Amino acid sequence: MSSKFAVYKGKFWCKTCGKEVGTIRIYPETGMGSWMCSEKHLSEVHVFQVGYKKKKDYEREE
Per residue in 44-59, pLDDT tens? Predict the structure, then answer.
């Protein structure tokens, strides 16, 4: 297993053909998750945000 991602078991469906996939790869550096069905379609989702925003990023400019 690579140190760049972690593999988790579950039920995930291909976004292209709808086939069920049994594992997902989670990449902690980017917060992305991906899985590939038997037809070689790659599905990706944003699982969590990496880093944080500062208070000034949320303030409005007038």
Answer: 999 988 887 777 777 7
Neighbours of 24 (CB within 10 A): 20
Sheet holding 20-27, edge to edge: 6-13, 20-27, 32-36, 42-46
Structure tokens at 41: 């379609």
Q: Residue written as tokens 């992305």?
A: 32
Angle at 36 between CA 50 and CA 31, to 5 degrees: 0
Q: CA 43: distance to chain centroid? A: 9
Q: With beta carbons less than 8 A apart as the criterion, state whether 12 and 35 touch.
A: yes
